[in-house]
């Protein structure tokens, strides 16, 4: 298998994986609201969700390095199904909703750093002239196309339930049912698309608890002392904080802008799909875009991330559907334009045997930022409104982008 064949296989898999995730995205907060939760309740639920991810992500990344990335990924699909089923039966039980959030967060922690690391390592061990930067930009396009398709389906399903008068506890429950079925299907598809031949370093007999802890703590130490990695971790924390704010409050904000006009739930799926397509466009354009910055990842990150903060403030001030959509799409184009550069910097400065762990640390920074945002911004939004929440996040994004200017131009391999 050459690099192009590997890329095609991985693109298909990631497109399927993220289309399943996308089914819940346009209605996630609406699902919680349909079960009687207010903004502060939702903040607590999201804190449990992302908190369980943050708590488990790093040690589970180490396990993936030892036991095998595909095996751990398959486990994440099973846990995701458990979370969806728990949320389906939660009805108005806050305890069950919290439990569902824990399982869904755990699923994300199990998945994190598995197939990303598998793809990077496999890509660099087979023949072909394709560069990793170009390959990952194509993968991210497929990810966003999958998310867009899933979001369109997820936005359409509640309207479909209403049109047929299907007897469900909530018009959003069909989304959860479809996700369970799709996850089971992906479980078996993964055996065909993901092959893992390098099994020698995954021998479970070599795995000791103390070794795992030592492995994880060493990776954490390096991630916050390494001259390049620590800047990535710091800005990733802010990225997670801001992303949580957008994901948690764009649906209720748009609901207020629409003001009960006859758009239907499908508009949420439509806007979600446009967002993901815009993110995919930014990923695809990241390769030619970086040439404008003389192949400097840090300069690309600084410019795009700071401009995204400006447009987030504009988004907070939008008062029509059209102005919301325009600001929302431009914001996400800029917000995600540097993601490929971050992945390149992170992978190029990390050793192979700790790659899953380091990717999990990076992902955990996103989730830690999300936990803080969920707890803090739930209160801010309930007391002062979403506009205040978003304007503050916009200024935070602008100021934190200055950290990218401290990233040195040369690669510095992490030494543990």
How does the helix and strand content classify structurally? Answer: mainly alpha
Average per-residue pLDDT, rounded, comes to 83
Spans of 5+ residues with little confidence (pLDDT < 50)? 198-207, 412-416
- How is the CATH topology named? Growth Hormone, Chain: A
* Outline: globular
Beta-strand fraction estimate:
under 5%
Total DSSP helices: 16
Q: State the CATH class.
A: Mainly Alpha
CATH architecture: Up-down Bundle
- The fourth-level CATH homologous superfamily is MFS general substrate transporter like domains
How far apart lie the N and C ends? Answer: 32 Å
- Give a short account of the largest sheet: none
Number of DSSP E strands: 0
Helical residues, percent: over 70%
Number of domains: 1
Written account of the structure:
The protein is mostly helical and 416 residues long. The protein has a single domain, classed as Growth Hormone, Chain: A (Up-down Bundle), CATH 1.20.1250.20. Helices cover 77% and strands 0% of the residues. α1 runs antiparallel to α8 and α4 packs antiparallel against α5. The protein is globular and about 55 Å long.
Q: In terms of topology, how is this protein built?
A:
Blueprint: H1 3-22, H2 28-34, H3 39-67, H4 69-88, H5 94-111, H6 115-123, H7 132-164, H8 173-193, H9 209-223, H10 229-258, H11 266-291, H12 297-316, H13 321-336, H14 339-348, H15 355-384, H16 386-400
Helix pairs in contact: 1-7, 1-8, 3-4, 3-5, 3-9, 3-15, 4-5, 4-8, 7-11, 10-15, 10-16, 11-13, 12-13, 12-14, 12-16, 15-16
Main location: membrane
Domain Major facilitator superfamily (MFS) profile: 1-411
Membrane topology: Multi-pass membrane protein
